[in-house]
Amino acid sequence: MGPHVTSNADAFDQWIRRYHPSSERGLRLISLPHAGGSASAYFALSAAMAPSVEVWSVQYPGRQDHRRGQFCTDAHELAGHLAQALQGRLDQPYALFGHSMGAAVAFELTRLLEQAGQGPEALVVSGRRAPSTVRDEQVHLRDDAGIVRELRLLSGTDPVFLRDPELLAMILPVLRADYRVIETYAAEPGAAVATPVTALVGADDPKTTVEEARAWSRHASGAFDLRVFPGGHFFLDEQLPQVVDTLRNVLLSVPAAGDSKRGQS
Fold it and tell me: Is the dihedral of CA 260, 42, 149, 210 positive or negative?
């Protein structure tokens, strides 16, 4: 079972962080973090996109100010909770952006929202191989030392956490649950979205090759584009200005609020 919610307003406040709220009726970019990540992973992106694009950063349960929420261990379940939290809030044009685990959850969330007639204007998947590609990954079954080895390989965790036993003890349960989410994830055969898809990948990402990222085209029944950046799994941090430029270019084709079908409903 997922975290208990008492109302849609409560659910939205539990799941979404708005670090740079905008008074403009512009575009919203709903951003889903990587395994072990929190909403604050997108603070710098939010600052860079404001005020023309308001970034909504997803706060998964079990961490930071959503710590009391129960872990989700299934990507479909996670997408379902997010769809519920966003219900009634998608009245302006928006796009979805997910990195690593967040890319898979964003894909499943897009499918749910399309089925509800509220699909995004664009889906950007980053640092994650396409659902139709297969790797035998079982980090979630490793002992604690094995998970730490994986974190060092990806170079996305502050070394302070890896050296401090107390801090490490705090994040390991979250990491194990998230790795279970992504490593047991399987899309339905033939799963695809009509929303335009852009895939971003680091040229030296040990978790996703360029060809595995290109395979997202199999899951896009509409437009598809692939962008390759220098760097590894966390090229987002290394190449933030270039990523922001890419996102802005992707979002240029999204209609303004007054021109959107949502603005007419």
Answer: positive
Q: Give pLDDT tens digits for 141-150.
A: 677 777 777 7
Residue 209, classed as helix, strand or coil, is coil
Residue 100 known to be catalytic: yes
Distance CA(225)–CA(217), nearest Å, equals: 8
Specify if 168 maps to a domain: no
108-117 per-position pLDDT tens digit: 999 999 999 9
- Residue range(s) defining the domain that contains residue 107: 8-135+188-253
Number of structural domains found in the chain: 1
Q: Which of 100, 126, 155, 260 is catalytic?
A: 100
Whether 153 is in a domain gets the answer: no
Angle, to 10 degrees, between the axis of helix 75-86 and the axis of helix 165-183? Answer: 90
**Which pLDDT score is estimated for 149?**
77
